Amino acid sequence: MKFRKSLLIALCVGAFGGLSAPMTASAAVEVYFNTAPPPLRVEAVPAPRRGYQWVPGYWEGRGQRHVWHAGYWQRERRGYHYAPPTWVERNNRWYYEQGRWNRDTDHDGVPNAADRAPNNPTRH
């Protein structure tokens, strides 16, 4: 009887201990609208800044409307090319794709995925 009781307690503690363990989840979230974003706004691009790249303004989705996000400076990442945020139409829906840094090993401004010679040593 005592053995069964301690076994039951151990099982309960183990079961509840497993529930308190942190769980990780990975889910891709896509933002889409049934209407196209408004035309891009015209912005004055400031003079270049050493070590920074200008990210032009763009429309982002907040709630159920498009909201303008003004352009800004972002620190460069050596060996990468920045692709600004865009909206892409698929199946009559507009999907938002966040800006991202793509690998550019020869520093020619063309991401490796689209470069016909991504490791060309004569380009720098």
Could you list the spans in which at least 5 consecutive residues all have pLDDT below 50? none
Number of helices in the DSSP assignment: 1
**Share of residues in helices:** 10-25%
Distance between the termini: 78 Å
Report what the structure shows.
With 124 residues, this protein is an alpha+beta fold. The protein has a domain at 30-36 and 52-124. It is built from one helix and nine strands. It has one helix at residues 2-20; strands spanning 32-33, 52-55, 58-62, 65-69, 72-75, 80-83, 86-90, 93-97, 100-103. The strands form four sheets. A three-stranded antiparallel sheet has the order 1-8-7, with no helix packed on it. A hairpin with a 2-residue loop joins strand 3 (58-62) and strand 4. It is extended. The termini are far apart.
